[in-house]
Write a structure and sequence with these properties.
The chain is built from 4 helices and 9 strands. Strand 7 and strand 8 form a beta hairpin. With 204 residues, it is of the alpha+beta class. The strands form 2 sheets. Strands 1, 2, 3, 4 and 5 form a 5-stranded antiparallel beta sheet that branches. 19% of the residues lie in helices and 36% in strands.
């Protein structure tokens, strides 16, 4: 009975909305732009997004791609340096890279090093960028080119998103519609089927 209730809820959520899905522009769809749009809770006075390793400057372990807020060295020390390779959204095949967020909350330095940490840092969903990040945490991707894998509708209790699952060999894209509530939970999904299927293998 429970899956049936979920399916009915999802149908009502999507079909009751007369709006069309809005597509994120390609320049707003990459990971770094999504991370910059996070609105942490009010107890976070400063935060910075780090990308590591730092391939641009080998003397630095990581590269700060974004920072917001302020802090006083008279009250707290500088942000901690990390020598480990723990992070989220790993990539850069065949080599390695990842992201982490260092933030000051109630005058205590903390670090988001995993996707679960990132989810806790996002907390409640304030905008479509945070909703898409929740989708990425759960294994879905944004398609820069097609609305079948890139779209959002704001609902009174969350977001409906179009995202995709991508396979590189053979290359395929499968469309999904997700409902993500304001608490950051995916409460329903709908498989829309494949919209790209090839016999090609993308080799990194």
């Amino acid at each position: 009975m429970k899956p049936l209730i979920t399916a009915i809820f999802f149908t009502i959520t999507v079909t009751s909305c007369s709006e069309k899905f809005q597509k994120l522009p390609s320049k707003e769809s990459d990971v770094e732009h999504l991370l910059k749009k996070i609105k942490p809770n009010n107890n976070v006075s400063y935060w910075q997004v780090e990308h590591f390793p730092n391939y641009e400057d080998e003397t630095q372990e990581s590269r700060i791609v974004f920072s917001k807020g302020q802090y006083s060295n008279k009250q707290v020390s500088s942000p901690p340096n990390h020598n480990d390779w723990n992070g989220f959204f790993e990539g850069c095949q065949p080599i390695f890279c990842a992201y982490r967020i260092v933030y000051l909350e109630n005058n205590i330095w903390k670090t988001a090093k995993s996707e679960e940490d990132l989810k806790n840092f996002i907390s409640t969903i304030d905008n479509e960028y945070e909703a898409f990040l929740i989708g990425k945490i759960n294994g879905y991707e944004i398609d820069y080119y097609s609305e079948k894998g890139n779209g959002f509708i704001k609902d009174k209790s969350g977001y409906n998103l179009n995202m995709m699952k991508y396979n590189s060999c053979p290359e395929s894209k499968e469309s999904f519609t997700l409902f993500i509530n304001d608490s950051g939970k995916i409460t329903a999904t709908k498989n829309n089927g494949f919209y790209l299927k090839t016999k090609n293998c993308i080799v990194y």
